[in-house]
Amino acid sequence: MAQFEEVSIDQGTDVTLKLELVDVEGNKKNLTDFTVAAKMKKTYNTSDSDATTFTASVISPETNGVVNLTLTNAQTSLLKSGRYVYDVELAFVDSSSNTVKERILEGQITVTPQVT
After folding, report:
1. What residues contact residue 46 under an 8 Å CB cut-off, 6+ apart?
2. Residue pair 46/82 in contact by the 8 Å Cβ criterion
3. Beta strand 52-53 with 55-58: parallel, antiparallel or unpaired?
4. Over the stretch 51-93, which tens digit does the pLDDT of each residue have?
């Protein structure tokens, strides 16, 4: 089950969210051969074409379990202020060539309006 986290971001700014992932024993999660994806939408029912996609990457060395999610100021400038939903998924290909996905984080993002 994914962790739930509320996040606040400022409209019109560059945003980086750093996730430090650990396994069930509390050790850094080895993310070798994993990919990561993250999106935010106004509601769960909003179409994917209306989603804002984070640039999501596993940071080297992959054995440190660190993921960065970023949005540019151009992306956040286009967001209306208010509340959004988001999630983050890890994926890997298993030995049978099946893609296995795990939702690791979900929650709400509040976008605060800009003045300048």
Report:
1. none
2. no
3. unpaired
4. 999 999 999 999 999 999 999 999 999 999 999 999 999 999 9
Q: What is the pTM of this model?
A: 0.91
CB 5 within 8 Å of CB 88: no
Q: Yes or no: say if 109 and 40 are a contact pair by the CB < 8 Å rule.
A: yes
| Kind plus residue range of the DSSP H or E element containing 92 | strand 82-93
Mean pLDDT, all residues of the chain: 95
pLDDT (average), residues 12-39: 96
CATH number for the domain that contains residue 105: 2.60.40.10
CB burial string 72-97: b at 16+ within 10 A, e below? eeebbeebeeeebbbbbbbeeeeeee
Report how many domains make up the chain: 1
Domain hosting residue 52, numbered range:
3-112
CA 51 – CA 29 distance, rounded (Å): 28
